[in-house]
Amino acid sequence: MIACCAGLPEQTVDAGVRIIEEGRKPGILYVLVEGAVEVLRGDVVVHTTTQPGAFFGEMSMLLGTPYTASVRTLERSRFYLVDDPPALLRSHPELGLSLARLLAHRLRLVTGYLVDLQHQFADRDDHFGLVEQVLATLVHHQPDDD
Known about the structure:
single chain, alpha+beta, four-stranded antiparallel β-sheet, 5 helices
């Protein structure tokens, strides 16, 4: 990912700055060059990374929906800024494959977790018993607008 971004605009951000704000419209895809960031849903930290090439804002960019999480720098960090992700993906198809692999990996983790919950709470008739329905919806959902 990093090599494909050479020549794109860069931004250096001090520690403690939110580069992406949950709920806001997507605009830019951020690619970490160096530094450290945390991803938050509400006030819960769901991930931290220092991995060069990590990207942020990809789900919103692909779906055209508001950002689903916030991203905050933990230390002074440098990013490539992608203001036209579809153009970058068209010119570098390997990025699309990388992105597809990332999203497939996330989906595998989530479905594995839900299957574990389904086994654990199979005999419940409260909201924990709904895991089977959630899992089926997640795995079989086909968007209407594509």
